[in-house]
Amino acid sequence: MRDYRALVDEAASVSVDGWDFSWLAGRADEQRPSWGYASAMAERLSTANRALDVDTGGGEVLNEAADLPALTVATESWPPNLARAAESLSPRGVNLVRTRDASALPFRDAVFDLVTSRHPVKVWWHEIARVLAPGGTYFAQHVGPASAVEVTEWFLGPQPDAWEHRRPETDRAEAEAAGLSIIDLRCERLRMEFFDVGAMIYFLRKVIWILPEFTVERYEHRLRALHDHIVANGSFVAHSSRFLIEGAKPQR
């Protein structure tokens, strides 16, 4: 394994724009949910007429779909991601919209028959229900409770409240309160492994909500300890949490 400083310097300088994690190939690994969200999303897009992808990131998942509806719209709030999404999605005719406040989606009522999202920052269920046409569906993969909590606890110590947030049953209740009927809800906890400290630095720079105030300087002591742990044990193991949720708006 390369020395600590070389790993840190490389990971601290590489770009983290977009939502492509290919830089981590061979350096970290994450088990994928059994339902195969990207392919299932692509199937639904192939039969939709008007689709909206919320929090599209760099458009990576949406761009995997071979067939897109004639009207496909994607929203994103972070400018670097929006620029990356434009590179791949604009040539395919996707309309990109920058949103600053997802609590008010800038679309008229009942315009989309499919709304999708992979790992939305926050779901505003009443807005989702408002923009869905009668009979339309919301199909998404959300981050579940205590996702990668082992990472957070390595740097910050015990997180006793981690299991109280992003609970599937909470989303079910909020979706139903907004008028949607939940037709599928599945949750899985999945193994993650980091094989060098640089992989962890890249992950924390990219997935900023895991450790919002992360900098190499702030957490130098814990990063050095993490490097020693990986050298001694071969990897650092954590677990992500994901759930699939599908809701339908009644025909009337």
UniProtKB/TrEMBL annotation:
GO BP, sorted A to Z: methylation
SUPFAM superfamilies: S-adenosyl-L-methionine-dependent methyltransferases (SSF53335)
Residues of the Methyltransferase type domain: 52-139
Keyword terms of this UniProt record: Methyltransferase, Transferase, Ubiquinone
InterPro entries (alphabetical): 23S_rRNA_MeTrnsfrase_RlmA, Methyltransf_11, SAM-dependent_MTases_sf
Top-level division of the source organism's lineage: Bacteria
GO molecular function: S-adenosylmethionine-dependent methyltransferase activity
Gene3D superfamilies listed in its UniProt record: Vaccinia Virus protein VP39
Protein name per Swiss-Prot or TrEMBL: Ubiquinone/menaquinone biosynthesis C-methylase UbiE
Originating species: Stackebrandtia endophytica
